[in-house]
Write a structure and sequence with these properties.
six-stranded mixed sheet; about 25% strand; Rossmann fold; 10 strands; alpha/beta
Length: about 240
């Protein structure tokens, strides 16, 4: 039986009086790519931010490798092996590419040899970043900034990688490249939870998927079945 890396149960999250998550439950098994799809405001990014410790749930539990993490500060969740590439990339514009990547390894400063290995691994995935190493992150193109955001998350050496809208705002040829790289990262042994507006691409590379609407999971199945599901095809894949 596959080992559950992440198990979320009955997650309730509020922003003031507004309920953003209404009892979400989901699980991610070791080695999987699991995609969350849904319209804007469905609760996808809030789910990611809650797992990361950036948002505190009012109720519910987040188990990572069998241990509750919903009350831990974000840096301790990173130390346990959860990395995040946030929506909108959020690179540090005035810092160089190298400085952004080194910041991703902030919790691992004692392990310099490993950090050097991880830097080389990021350069293998994203050769462009090596070319831009001394350049300010704010001068990079959108695609390069997305590479940097994912590379920075990988510098924490995560076993679970949370990707929030990695294709947002990118040209179609770059979207294809980013999704190929996500598959490569997964093939290297990293479990991935992916939030993505491009439902077709997200489900094509995923093992399983969850469909969110107004803070609830309304459908879950294998990615292959979701691609064939009439409701998903009409609502998220643009098919009549």
């Amino acid at each position: 039986m596959e080992r559950r890396v992440l198990n979320i149960s009955n997650l309730q999250v509020y922003y003031g009086a507004i309920r953003a998550l209404d009892g979400i439950s989901l699980e991610v098994h070791q080695g999987e790519i699991v995609s969350m799809i849904g319209a804007n405001g469905a609760g996808k990014s809030t789910t990611i931010r809650t797992i990361s410790g950036l948002v505190r749930p009012r109720e519910g539990e987040v188990l990572y490798e069998g241990q509750p993490i919903q009350r831990l500060p974000a840096h301790q969740i990173v130390e346990r092996g959860v990395g995040q590439s946030p929506e909108g990339r959020r690179v540090f514009a005035n810092m160089t590419v190298r400085e952004n990547l080194e910041l991703g390894a902030y919790t691992r400063q004692k392990h310099r040899a490993e950090v050097k290995e991880d830097l080389d691994r990021v350069f293998q995935l994203f050769p462009r970043l090596k070319e831009r190493l001394t350049q300010s992150a704010g001068t990079l193109s959108g695609g390069e900034q997305q590479m940097l955001a994912i590379g920075r998350a990988l510098m924490a050496r995560p076993r679970l990688l949370l990707l929030d809208e990695p294709s947002l705002g990118l040209a179609p040829f770059l979207v294809q490249s980013i999704f190929r790289i996500i598959r490569d990262i997964n093939a290297q042994g990293v479990t991935i939870l992916l939030v993505e507006q491009n439902a077709h691409q997200a489900l094509r590379i995923a093992d399983r998927g969850y469909v969110l609407e107004t803070g609830r999971v309304v459908l879950t199945d294998t990615a292959a079945n979701l691609l064939k599901n009439d409701m998903v095809r009409k609502a998220y894949l643009g098919e009549a």
